[in-house]
């Protein structure tokens, strides 16, 4: 139904407008048990008989919704009804932001990909966390934090900005992702610099410890046995092998609990779309099938380096059962997707979840 009826209509609209429309429907569904039951009957599959726990959390299945789709946490219950095994809300930032000027989201249908330069638009950490406090979810909730999109917030103030979001996210998150790889801010990806990353992780560790790691606050059907809120770092797909090893060493020194690979790309090599079409779109992060190969490679690099010691969330161009299974074989513990929802629709979630249950 999605591909024949809904997608052609959505693809007549501007990409961001179509997304806003989908979020509007999903947020209405989020507030209605009846609608969630209907969605769940249409889409959800039986839970996997898995007792495996990651970070002390029970994941009913390994497929999650990637950050960026639900920036303000208005749709998690709908996404749970669609069959996702976990949800990552955000990125949220300490100060609210309207993001970059529009248009800022573009479809690349010939490449099964998207380019976006949303620029971390969100309602701000405090407001989103207040909303999430009221949420009752039966699956783990991740909260992705980033620095407020404002180039005047730099140096120590930038670290403080992250810490503010981290302390708020702790109140509701089952795990927190530190997004150091958003390509769409005025100042760029400053925290992928090793020195800056060390300062950021030192700051977060010191402040979180000073406040005492709170116990998990969500009233869910599972209980976290973890001593603190598991914290992951999200890398750019453009990170070289050498840089990844350096960044990984820093993260390991600060006791980071897992990794998200990968965020979007600034690279435009190998696309079917012409240079002219791409230059008309302009800058932004490339996601979808076009980054799948590199994202898979980074999952392998991480798996080799960590030897299974830390959970890896693989994301970037997962758009089929086969590509999902390939990531698990490459060493991923959990998976996420975003762009494939646009091209394949929500039915893909149950297809992947079913296949993961069989494998
Ligand atoms: C429109 C859009 C907005 C995004 N916003 C965020 C964000 O706020 N924070 C983040 O960590 N990742 C963000 N992402 C990146 C996704 O979480 C994901 O890492 C990336 O799109 C690759 O996965 P995919 O190919 O399945 O889309 C965004 C992606 C898209 C397409």
Q: Would you write up a description of this structure?
A:
The protein has 359 residues and is of the alpha/beta class. Helix content is 40%, strand content 15%. The protein has an 8-stranded parallel β-barrel, surrounded by 5 helices. The model is unreliable at 211-226 (pLDDT under 50). Bound molecules: flavin mononucleotide (FMN). Flavin mononucleotide (FMN) binds at residues 66-68, 71, 90-91, 105, 114, 116, 118, 120, 144, 179, 182, 234, 263-264, 287-288, 291, 315-318, 337-340.
Summary, kept brief:
The chain is of the alpha/beta class and 359 residues long.
Percent of sequence in beta strands: 5-15%
Largest sheet: 8 strands, parallel, barrel
Gross CATH architecture: Alpha-Beta Barrel
Distance from N terminus to C terminus (CA atoms, Å) equals: 27 Å
Q: The CATH topology is what?
A: TIM Barrel
CATH class: Alpha Beta
What's the overall average pLDDT, rounded? 91
Class from secondary-structure proportions: alpha/beta
From the spread of the alpha carbons, the general shape counts as: globular
Instruction: Find the count of extended strands (DSSP E, 2+ residues).
Output: 13
Which bin fits the share of residues in helices?
40-55%
């Amino acid at each position: 139904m999605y591909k024949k009826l809904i997608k052609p209509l959505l693809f007549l609209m501007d990409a961001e407008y179509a997304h806003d429309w989908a979020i509007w429907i999903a947020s209405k569904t989020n507030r209605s048990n009846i609608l969630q039951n209907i969605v769940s009957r249409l889409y959800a599959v039986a839970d996997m008989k898995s007792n495996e726990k990651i970070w002390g959390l029970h994941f009913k299945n390994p497929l999650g919704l990637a950050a960026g789709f639900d920036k303000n946490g208005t749709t998690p219950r709908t996404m749970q009804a669609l069959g996702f095994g976990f949800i990552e809300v955000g990125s949220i930032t300490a100060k609210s932001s309207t993001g970059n000027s529009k248009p800022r989201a573009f479809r690349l249908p010939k490449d099964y990909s998207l380019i976006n330069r949303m620029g971390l638009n969100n309602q701000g950490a405090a407001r989103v966390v207040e909303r999430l406090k009221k949420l009752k979810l039966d699956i783990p909730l991740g909260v992705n934090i980033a620095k407020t999109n404002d180039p005047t917030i730099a140096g120590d103030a930038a670290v403080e900005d992250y810490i503010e979001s981290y302390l708020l996210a702790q109140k509701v998150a089952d795990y927190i992702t530190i997004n150091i790889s958003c390509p769409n801010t005025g100042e760029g990806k400053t925290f992928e610099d090793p020195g800056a990353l060390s300062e950021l992780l030192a700051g977060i560790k010191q402040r979180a410890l000073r406040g005492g790691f709170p116990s998990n606050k969500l009233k869910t059907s599972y209980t976290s046995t973890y001593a603190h809120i598991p914290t992951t770092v999200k890398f750019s797909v453009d990170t070289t092998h050498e840089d990844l090893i350096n960044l990984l060493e820093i993260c390991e020194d600060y006791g980071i609990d897992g990794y998200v690979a990968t965020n979007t790309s600034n690279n435009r090599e190998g696309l079917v779309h012409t240079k002219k079409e791409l230059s008309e779109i302009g800058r932004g992060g490339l996601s979808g099938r076009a980054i799948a190969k590199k994202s898979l490679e980074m999952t392998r690099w991480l798996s080799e380096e960590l030897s299974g010691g830390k959970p890896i969330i693989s994301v970037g161009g997962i758009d089929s059962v086969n590509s999902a299974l390939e990531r698990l074989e490459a060493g991923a513990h959990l998976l996420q997707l975003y762009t494939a929802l646009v091209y394949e629709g929500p039915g893909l979630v149950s297809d992947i979840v079913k296949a993961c249950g069989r494998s």
